[in-house]
Structures are given as structure tokens and as C-alpha cells.
Write a structure and sequence with these properties.
The chain has 365 residues and is an alpha+beta fold. The chain has 9 helices and 17 strands. A hairpin with a 5-residue loop joins β11 and β12.
């Protein structure tokens, strides 16, 4: 498909996982070096960033960082780093990261434009196909995440390729640019939007969506390499890639149906938000009537009391006073009884010691 490696751009190689991509890349590069397509890679070691795939929450937490970690700038952060640059964490001082580029930063302030991982050395020789992992725009060139290029053999110099794998222009990248990987093999996800004459797909198992994307990259020929055809066919139909909603998971029994509080009915909501004017007026009249009746009752009692003789009024007052005193005494006795019940037997007061009665008129004193 590549005319014994003479036209490597005529073919796209795709795998479903990064591990398989790296394995197939090693085999392809070995054959290309034996055929003389790749030359001088031992003398040109390119430092490449490898992500640990941290979440934004992990990137913003200072406790996750340690000296020696690599910070990769995926976007431009004004005054700190440019896309594709990489810096090492030297130390953590006063709640901030001290970087090898001389900057001191807070992780939570730059978490949306960085990634964390380590770096590896890639031997890149003349004729190697590489892939960029960041977006870079300068007055001289523009690089997209996923763009391919061919190494010229000179440090940081590459020939850009378009989506049809045609050569465009030669660019010179900065010395601190680390957003680069091998581009001989890519995942089916990364290969979307690319087209070539031929395509090679190698996989142990794939989903039907990834299989369709990978196999549709070529115009003329397709080669599929699998270790076990029956296993590949079985997994092709069984691997699920659809994003199920909560309702689908509940219907399938994978998630238990949550117990939710009962929602108020439309009538209840309407009554709370827009109560019936008739009910409001009825309650208002009722409350007003009860208040008036109470006031009238108190006034009536006072009026009747004023017409009684003086001795009768005095007797009624004494009777009321005695009842109040009796009620207070009853409440005090009830409280003492409750306190007595709460006491344990050990804390109860002991009865007084009784002296024995004298026998025959003689006591025991």
C-alpha cells in the first residue's frame, strides 16, 4: 500500500487504543529504518510530553503536585507560558508552584490551560511522520491539534501536511516546544477528518462506531489485521458506546430507582401561589369575629363585676387568689415528685435512724 515504504503518506494506519498504536508504530518505524526511509534518528532526540489525564479539579488542587512533575501548557497563559511549552515543578513555596521557567503560580489560576504528566525522549529522524498535540498560531504558520508533519532531519524543523496528507510549508518550531508525538499510527478517534488512498486497521477488538470511522479513511484499499476473527466479530457487536441516560439505566435495572419526595399537585401549588379570594375573606372575617367576641366577653364580665356588692367582690378576689396559690403549690409538688423519680436508689436520702424502745423502763442509752 506504500510501495515498499517509498510513499508512506499514501496510507493511514489506525488502532483503537493508544497501547496498540505505540506497538504498531514501533514495528512500522523499524521497517522504515531498515528500508532507509528514516535516517539519523539516534542523533536527534526530541522531548515529548505524556499526559496523566488529570481532571480540572485535580489540576487545581495544590496537594496533588510534587517537585519533578512536568506542566504542559495547552493554551497561552499570559506572562506564564505559550502553547506547546513545558516547565518542571522545582518546589512548592508559600502555597505556590515554583516552575523551571522562573514563574511562580497558583494551580487553581492556571488549571484551564495546563496539563500534568512526564516527558519521554523520542528519536526523530529524517522522514519520520510526527503529530502535534496543541493549537499554535503565529504570523508564519498555523498548527492545529492533530496536524501531521514530516521531519526534515534538522532540529525542530518540519514540513506541514494538510488533511489530505499533502505537503504545505516548512516550519521552524521553538526549542521549548514539546507538544509532539509520532504520527505513523493514530487512534480511530484522532483519524476523523483525514483521508488517504489506503488505510490499514489493526485491532484486537473495536466498537462498531470506531470500526466504521477507521475503515472509512481510505479511498482505494483497506487492510484489516486481527489476531482472532471470531473474537473480533463478537466484540464488534457487543461493545457498547452509546451514552445512556438515567432513565435508560433505571429501565435496564443497572441503577436503582431513587425514592423522591412527593411533588405537590397543581391544585396545591395554585392554592399556595394564588389562594382563593373567597377563602381569604372568610378567614379574615372569622378571625375578626373571634377577636371582637373575646373583647366583648371581657368587657361584659368587668361590667357585671362592677355591679356586685363590695363584700361579694372581695370574696371573689380572695377565692381567685387562693386558687392561684393552690395551683402554684400543686405545680411545685409535682416538680419535686418528678425530681424524686429521676434520682437513682443510691442517691435517695436514707431514712432517719430510730432509737429502740426501752424494755422494762430501761433504755439503751
Amino acid at each position: 500500500m506504500t510501495d515498499e515504504g517509498k510513499r508512506p503518506l499514501d496510507c493511514i494506519a489506525a488502532c483503537p487504543t493508544i497501547r496498540e498504536c505505540e506497538s504498531l508504530t514501533g514495528m512500522i518505524r523499524k521497517k522504515m529504518k531498515d528500508a532507509g526511509i528514516i535516517q539519523g534518528d539516534e542523533s536527534n532526540q526530541v522531548e515529548s510530553f505524556r499526559s496523566w489525564n488529570w481532571t480540572k479539579q485535580q489540576l487545581g488542587n495544590l496537594e496533588n503536585f510534587q517537585p519533578g512533575m512536568k506542566i504542559f501548557f495547552s493554551t497561552k497563559i499570559k506572562g506564564i507560558g505559550l502553547p506547546g511549552e513545558m516547565a518542571e515543578v522545582l518546589k512548592i513555596d508559600d502555597g505556590k508552584l515554583v516552575l523551571s521557567n522562573g514563574k511562580t503560580v497558583l494551580p487553581k489560576e492556571i488549571k484551564h490551560g495546563i496539563d500534568v504528566g512526564n516527558s519521554t525522549a523520542l528519536p526523530v529522524g529524517k522522514g519520520d511522520i510526527v503529530r502535534f498535540t496543541v493549537n499554535v498560531k503565529t504570523p508564519d504558520y498555523k498548527i492545529n491539534n492533530g496536524s501531521l508533519a514530516i521531519a526534515t532531519g534538522r532540529p525542530n524543523e518540519y514540513i506541514l501536511l494538510d488533511s489530505q496528507r499533502r505537503e504545505q510549508t516548512t516550519i521552524q518550531l521553538p526549542e521549548n516546544f514539546k507538544g509532539i508525538k509520532y504520527g505513523w499510527v493514530m487512534t480511530s478517534h484522532v483519524s476523523q477528518g483525514m483521508t488517504s488512498k489506503n488505510v490499514v486497521v489493526a485491532a484486537e477488538k473495536m466498537s462498531k462506531q470506531a470500526f466504521y470511522v477507521a475503515c472509512s479513511r481510505g479511498k482505494q484499499k483497506l487492510a484489516l489485521h486481527v489476531p482472532d476473527k471470531e473474537h473480533f466479530k463478537d466484540r464488534l457487536m457487543k461493545i457498547k458506546t452509546e451514552r445512556l441516560s438515567v432513565h435508560d439505566l433505571i429501565a435496564s435495572g443497572e441503577v436503582a430507582r431513587p425514592i423522591l419526595p412527593e411533588k405537590p399537585t397543581a391544585e396545591q401549588i395554585k392554592e399556595q401561589c394564588r389562594p382563593d379570594p373567597g377563602k381569604l375573606l372568610s378567614e379574615y372575617r372569622k378571625n375578626r369575629f373571634m377577636k371582637a367576641a373575646k373583647n366583648i366577653g371581657i368587657k361584659t364580665i368587668k361590667t357585671i363585676f362592677s355591679f356586685l356588692p363590695t363584700w361579694k367582690q372581695q370574696k371573689i378576689k380572695e377565692t381567685i387568689k387562693q386558687k392561684e396559690i393552690k395551683n402554684v403549690a400543686n405545680e411545685r409538688n409535682a416538680e419535686l415528685a418528678r425530681q424524686q423519680q429521676r434520682r437513682s436508689p443510691e442517691t435517695l436520702p436514707k431514712p432517719p435512724r430510730q432509737r429502740p424502745k426501752p424494755v422494762g423502763g430501761i433504755g439503751f442509752d
